[in-house]
Amino acid sequence: MTRFSAPIAEQIWDMKYRLKDEDGKALETSVEDSWRRIANDLASVEKDPKAWEGKFYNALEDFKFLPAGRITAGAGTGRAVTLFNCFVMGTIPDSMGGIFDMLKEAALTMQQGGGIGYDFSTIRPRGAVVKGVAADASGPLSFMDVWDSMCRTIMSAGSRRGAMMATMRCDHPDIEDFITAKKDAARLRMFNVSVLITDPFMEAVKADKGWDLVFGGKVYRTVQARDLWDSIMESTYEFAEPGVIFIDRINKMNNLNYCESIAATNPCGEQPLPPYGACLLGSINLARLVADPFGKAAQLDEPALADLVTTAVRMMDNVVDASKFPLEAQAREAAAKRRIGLGVTGLADALLMVGVRYGSEEAARLSERWLKAIARAAYLASAHLAGEKGAFPLFEAEPFLASGSLEDMDQDVKDAIAENGIRNALLTSIAPTGTISLYAGNVSSGIEPVFAYAYTRKVLQKDGSRTEEEVVDYAVKMWRDKFGDAELPDYFVNAQTLAPLDHVRMQSAAQKWIDSSISKTINCPEDISFDDFKEVYMAAWDQGCKGCTTYRPNAVTGSVLTVSETSDAAPEADVGADVVYLSEPLERPQSLEGNTYKIKWPNTEHAIYITVNDVVIGDHRRPFEVFINSKNMEHFAWTVALTRMISAVFRRGGDVSFVVEELKAVFDPRGGAWVGGKYVPSILAAIGGVIERHLVSTGFIAGEGMGLKSDPHAEQAEVKVVGGAPTGPSCSSCGSYELRMVEGCQTCASCGHSKCG
């Protein structure tokens, strides 16, 4: 009997977390094998591993405790991978050499896995004097472009591209350019961007005062604070970025404000971190802890919750010792503070099971109670661990206990910390849990509301037919199992119908007991007025949130959460159900449309001819096969192998634009060449450039360095939310219409694919 409550859950496990050999052969026969692998690895650092293996396994069993994906996929595999999700890198020096040293560190970190965050406020503004070379500075935005290019080139461990967070202080002289940088749909796509908002700035906004833009003690100019605030609001209203981070509040509430200063976060924003800080994540699945769900006595089992949290803290603390790190500085930082980020998933489902409407005052009250219980249990567990294993090396009792996040903590918890110290400097965080929530049976993600109660997943088969699979929210499935086709009660609400201020209420309630931060997206309807939109951000500030991120459908990022318009005219590129992941490759039609391109590589006698043929599906072209011909026998064998592999990938479907990125990233150790006025690092990179230009010309991708083209006017009539209308563009990986915006990342609830920016 399978432990999975939904087919999609087993598919996610097999695709992302199941241990396989280099040839793709499964080494684990069941999810129980995966749980055992993780439990054994995390227990291995204990003095008596056997005493803890069983307890760790029980926590993982039935998806009660969900370590983050990197832990689930990497623990116990013997692979040299980091089990930490994301990093904030070192402070960027205001020098050319220092800047590119930081770029190298970023590349090494992304190569081993994990996203990165950077504060670009330390780079002098555009036009500032560079005395050593008698020139003017190009400014931080120009170097962000360099980082963006690097991120497109480096493939992180596994199959997911790295992501980055860029922050800039609200008083930096280039802040206005930073705010509007992503208005260009092709620029900085690898970045999420957020403005560091200070307390004095918010005071100036409310008082409508002037605001100095300063660097290195020099005032470059003065603007009205309210005008700058409105500029931030206008940009995020129009194209969903930048987010805002209330950085002074973060530093004030930080348990470690006596020994560190924070100026950046990980890409999703739930972990404000110091230079070289890393985030280690895991989630308690609240949906598995409700007793008598939908019954008269329905309630969260708080004693079971406390016991599970205690075990989870110990497991996550052990990850600090079990994990590898890309850089030695990251290892030292993790060991010195041992911060972890224990959060939740399934909150919205748990509220449904106890009969409470997400976003209501009662839901906020319950959420605060549950999260306090988690925080209390976590701090007590960490204090107990400190008594057993020692406090984190930088622990100082007096300033630690005086921090803002401990102000409202129960006295017995403070007493335990005063007596024993504490093992982990920070303990709680709420991350986006899109993939692991699917793995756990499609429970609601993090503290987000349920996105859709049910939807149909369609996959194009080899013969051109489509199979359908209904994917149902965990709580809805449980309701159906209990009550059949009985109508859902009024308290069932979803992300698309929830009022934005209800989102803020829930985030604020949760934040009180989270010592790090929260990844939360406030979904706003497209027709929300600008004044109402601004009110969301001011409410987040007034209600004590550490940051705010919204998503409103727009022309730049597309209509991810709303119904797309239809058009009688054929779109340039399809974003509907024809762009899907194929379970079997398509058969070759009798004839194909294609184009042939010529490359003349310097210092080679013969040209290379590249033919790209396209298949037409639904009146739209997508790449199907590639041929490369040349009289140069040096190239013959590898070109045949290359074209066969590329063609095999193309025939599987999905967003195959990554092929271009991989080819363009190949560097020839003998050196590249200048071709057409542009430096190309290898013949393979040149071939990648040709294929990329072909994909752009046919409308399959939007432009150089960009993925699958998004067309908000494409017809999407076939895939619908059960009981409703189509929900927007399809996932570039599986074709599902279950895309959602989570902290600036388009995340698919069907297959777990995530693309930031």
Report on this structure.
This protein has 23 helices and 30 strands. Strand 28 and strand 29 (745-748) form a beta hairpin. Helix 2 packs antiparallel against helix 3, helix 14 runs parallel beside helix 16 (411-420) and helix 19 (500-511) runs parallel beside helix 20 (530-542). Among the domains are: 7-82 and 280-420, no CATH class; 86-265, Anaerobic Ribonucleotide-triphosphate Reductase Large Chain (Alpha-Beta Barrel); 593-697. By secondary structure, it is of the alpha+beta class.
Hey, roughly how much beta strand do the residues contain?
A: 15-25%
Largest sheet: 7 strands, mixed
**Structure annotation, total helices:** 23
Unreliable stretches (pLDDT < 50, length at least 5) are: 155-160, 559-583, 709-728
Rounded to the nearest angstrom, the distance between the terminal CA atoms is 40 Å
Taking all residues together, what is the mean pLDDT? 84
* Shape call: globular
Please bin the fraction of helical residues: 25-40%
